[in-house]
Amino acid sequence: MEIKFFDDRVIVSGTDDFSAGKIFDCGQCFRWVRSPDGSWTGSALGRVLRLREEEGSVIFECGKEEFLGVWHDYFDLGRDYAALRKRLSVSEYMERACGFGAGIRILRQDAWEALCTFIISQCNNIARITGIVDRLCRIFGDEQEGGFCSFPGPERLCGLSERDLEPLRAGYRASYIISAARSVASGALELEALRSCDAETAEAALTALPGVGRKVASCVMLFGLGHTEAFPVDTWMRRALRDNFGPGFDPSVFGPDAGFAQQYIFYYSRWGRGGERYVCD
DNA sequence: AACCAGGCGCATA
DNA sequence: TATGCGCATGGT
Fold first, then answer.
1. Which of A19, A70, A136, A163 has the largest CB neighbor count within 10 A?
2. Numbers of helices and strands, H then E, in chain A
């Protein structure tokens, strides 16, 4: 992978492992939008970025400092995904899943945003999750360039009531959002400290929050806390595992790569051939 | 017009 | 440990 710096943009080229469409549509984040011209714009970590793909390279519309200080890490560009896919291709199925998902990267998202959005995601569909998250940012976040809004932090939400959140139309999840905001804002839950904890400790701390079970906790760990061994299992994963792996399958065989295995399996089962059989059943 | 969504928490066996 | 249910809302 090559990175070239210009005054107003950074160009990343020479990799099969950056596909904006797959990265933003694989269900890990909810705030990147595609423009008619094919470019993508999103708000993350308090900043707005636009990027576009052109002839096998990715163009980040930002300066060198911002790229190195923010986006290089956010897009996990220091990781060798080609080597990762090779390690994960331990079976014919995994080889297909990794090939199909080539281009996926697991974003290093803000931990609070991950917690909040995956609380919202429970028993919900992507379209509605996106809408609720958008309203949350639009109503309680700060305005940014291009009509985008920042993700409101826990200190912004901790003083609100369930009625204040009614315009989100988040249903019963509203109370979960508020109590999570209060736990984090008060310091009762130190999200950043969970980065360096072992997985069991992090999961226990997260599931202590109302409305946070194993699935949401594992998503927060994987997408927001850098716990790459986390392996979220939802309805899609349950079906994919049931049909393609033994009944006693243990994701820990993938060790610290388990989270990436999960993403490739999930993406393949939803959008690839691995998922078609379920439609016909 | 139903069905169900990247679940959770609680009750019951 | 396993299974079932209600929870708010609205996309498909």
1. A136
2. 14, 6
